[in-house]
């Protein structure tokens, strides 16, 4: 399909989100969050969503976001049920907003890819990289992506803990 002067549009290639299962966090808040997740799992593959009790992790709430993972008509999506203040400081108000209304499609696919990798692995993952939203690539992130289930069956909720580093600001 022709595009501007008869040339084809170039594919946008974005830096990947680095994912690993080693779970060696730089952020003490994320390490504490992983300990909490493991405690709530109580030997199971993952905790239930109802096992996550905000009053037990009050000091970690700014780092916490909960995303409902949906598949409809073969399309995967993430819906933010809860967005922590640290997350919204970087990405803006997303709480209970369809992400396609907030993020550009290429950024949304990057997020979906990380969530799908966590589902496929079936275990918590550490994510790191640069924020690309609204030209904020000067911000680096470290995240814990961990599975939750509403019923004890399939992974259907993402327990996401996020910490960000911005030059000149303490985290």
What is the CATH architecture descriptor? 2-Layer Sandwich
Which stretches are low in confidence, meaning pLDDT under 50 for 5 or more residues running? 1-10
Give the terminus-to-terminus CA distance.
46 Å
- The gross shape turns out to be globular
- The share of residues in extended strands comes to 25-35%
User: How large, in whole angstroms, is the Cα Rg?
Assistant: 17 Å
Please, could you describe this protein's structure?
The protein has about 170 residues and is of the alpha+beta class. The protein has one domain (about 20-50, about 65-165): PAS domain (Beta-Lactamase), CATH 3.30.450.20. Helices cover about 20% and strands about 25% of the residues. The protein has helices at about 30-40, 85-90, 105-120, and strands at about 20, 65-70, 75-85, 125-130, 140-150, 155-165. It has a six-stranded antiparallel beta sheet. The longest helix has 17 residues, at about 105-120. It is globular, with a radius of gyration of 17 Å. It starts with 17 loop residues before the first strand and ends in a 6-residue tail after the last strand.
Give structural attributes.
171 residues
């Amino acid at each position: 399909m022709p595009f501007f002067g008869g040339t084809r549009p170039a594919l946008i290639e974005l830096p990947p989100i680095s994912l690993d299962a080693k779970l060696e966090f730089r952020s003490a808040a994320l390490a504490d969050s992983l300990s909490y997740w493991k405690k709530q799992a109580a030997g199971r593959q993952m905790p239930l969503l109802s096992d996550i009790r905000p009053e037990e992790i009050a000091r970690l709430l700014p780092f916490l976001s909960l995303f409902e993972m949906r598949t409809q008509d073969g399309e995967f999506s993430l819906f933010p049920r809860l967005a922590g203040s640290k997350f919204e400081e970087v990405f803006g108000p997303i709480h209970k907003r369809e992400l396609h209304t907030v993020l550009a499609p290429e950024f949304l696919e990057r997020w979906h890819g990380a969530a799908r990798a966590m589902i496929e692995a079936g275990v918590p993952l550490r994510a790191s990289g640069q924020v690309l939203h609204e030209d904020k690539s000067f911000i680096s992130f470290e995240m814990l992506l961990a599975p939750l289930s509403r019923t004890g069956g399939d992974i259907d909720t993402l327990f996401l803990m996020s910490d960000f580093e911005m030059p000149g600001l303490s985290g």
